[in-house]
Amino acid sequence: MKASDLLTETPDQLKQKVADLRKEQFNLRFQRASGQLEKTDRVRAVRRDIARIKTVLGAKTAGPKAGGKAS
């Protein structure tokens, strides 16, 4: 998942993606604890995708005043 792909989505869609990824993360933790997890790299990818979405969501909600230097 790339940040540029996320820029076209609405904040509600991004929040839904975060919720879905949180559920997946929860399930992956249980699979790892019980020894059933086959794709161990997916845990890291989900965590990073959540962070990426939250970063884009924060930039969208902050508006134009965020991310630039004050003149």
Quick structural gist:
The protein has helices spanning about 5, 10-35, 40-60. It is mostly helical and about 70 residues long. The protein has a single domain, classed as Helix Hairpins, CATH 1.10.287.310.
Describe, in plain words, how this protein is organized in 3D.
- This protein is mainly alpha-helical.
- The protein has a single domain (3-63), classed as Helix Hairpins.
- It has helices at 3-6, 11-34, 41-62.
- It is elongated and about 45 Å long.
- The mean pLDDT is 88.
Report the uncertain regions: none
CATH fold naming: Helix Hairpins
Computed Rg: 15 Å
What is the CATH class?
A: Mainly Alpha
Topology, number of strands: 0
Number of domains: 1
Helix and strand element order: HHH
**Kindly state the mean pLDDT as a whole number?**
88
User: Which word captures the global form?
Assistant: elongated
Which architecture does the CATH hierarchy give at level 2?
Answer: Orthogonal Bundle
**Percentage of helical residues?**
over 70%
- Which structural class is indicated by helix and strand composition? mainly alpha
| Distinct helical segment count | 3
Assess the beta-strand content as a share of residues. under 5%
**Major sheet summary line:** none
Keywords, separated by commas or semicolons:
single chain; 71 residues; mainly alpha
Give the helix/strand layout:
Layout: H1 3-6, H2 11-34, H3 41-62
Helix pairs in contact: 2-3
